Amino acid sequence: MAQIVQVLVLGMALGGVIALMGSGLSLVFGVMRIVNLAHPALIIAGAYITYWGFKSWGIDPLLMLPIASIIMAAIGVLLYRLIFEKEAKSAKYSEMTVLLTFALAMMVEGLLGGLFTNTQRVTSPDYATDAFYFADIFIPKGQLYAGIVSLAIIGALTLFLKYSRLGYAIRATTQNREAAELLGVNVNFISILAFALGIGLAGAAGSLVSFVFSFFPAKQWEWIAMLMSVVVLGGMGSILGTVVAAFGLSIIAAFVGTWVGSTWSTMTFFLALFVILLIRPQGLFGDKPELA
Predict the structure, then answer these.
(1) Would you say the C-alpha torsion 172, 197, 239, 267 has a positive or negative sign?
(2) Which of 189, 139, 105, 144 has its CA nearest to residue 15?
(3) What CA–CA distance (Å, rounded) separates 11 from 48?
(4) Is the pLDDT of residue 81 over 70?
(5) What's the rounded mean pLDDT across residues 243-265?
(6) Helix (H, G, I), strand (E, B) or coil at 120
(7) Which of 78, 80, 79 is nearest to 88 (CA)?
């Protein structure tokens, strides 16, 4: 029984981080229909910003989180204006973004590899290797703190989207871009804002990832399948769905890794993606696609 509780706790702790990693990807797709294959590479960029601050000045990764978020959000604005803005009204926009973001992922990986090499890195604050103990159960402090911060950020994002005027505009653009524009919403500005928020969330996730996982530029190819599984299972564009899917798959993967083998835990995400595309392509919380 203690082992089951232990695995459940570890799965839930990682679920929060994975939910934050996927929430930015889901937000960007929901508002602009951009399938951002470069999202994991941008998360790793955020992790390197945090690593740089930690190694150079000893700044705690949790304190580097807002800095990494702001830097990555600014990069997001630049990327949107340079790459995505021109063709935003194209009928084939989503299909085009797959190729654009794939190329962007390759470029970011090459840049990070040139700057930092492909050596595995990790930030090591004191709490990253410490734990809380409750009888036979232990909770790693690093994973716990990362999970709590992730849920706090997602909660703040949810409140922003639900109750602020800009949040109303973002949700209106998500539901019907043309109708929102007719009602006076500056859709171009909202698209830039949403993309900046999504990439800023990638920066925040990168700060947490920096002490939860080891990372290197090519790590993005392992994470893209995992994040796409979470986002597709939850429903493309649904942040609630992303959170539910992240926790569900993380817990299942933790049990698979414990009872079957760690090499099989990642397969949980791939299998979930395969099954959900066969059975319910719109995901758990996504809208059923309309027939043309």
Answers:
(1) positive
(2) 144
(3) 25
(4) yes
(5) 87
(6) coil
(7) 80
Other Cβ atoms closer than 10 A to 140: 20
Instruction: Measure the CA–CA gap between 14 and 58, rounded to whole angstroms.
Output: 25
Cβ-contact 67, 53 below 8 angstroms? yes
Rounded Cα–Cα distance for residues 242 and 284 (Å): 9
Model confidence at 291, in pLDDT bands (50, 70, 90)? very low
Query: Which of 227, 224, 267, 220 minimizes the C-alpha distance to 245?
Result: 227
Query: b/e string for 64-81 if b means 16 or more Cβ within 10 A?
Result: bbebbbebbbebbeebbe
Task: Say which amino acid occupies 246.
Answer: A
Q: What is the pLDDT of residue 47?
A: 97
Q: What is the DSSP letter of 84?
A: I
Q: Is 96 exposed, middle or buried (0-12, 13-18, 19+ CB in 10 A)?
A: middle
Tens digits of per-residue pLDDT, 126-155?
Answer: 999 899 988 788 889 999 999 999 999 999
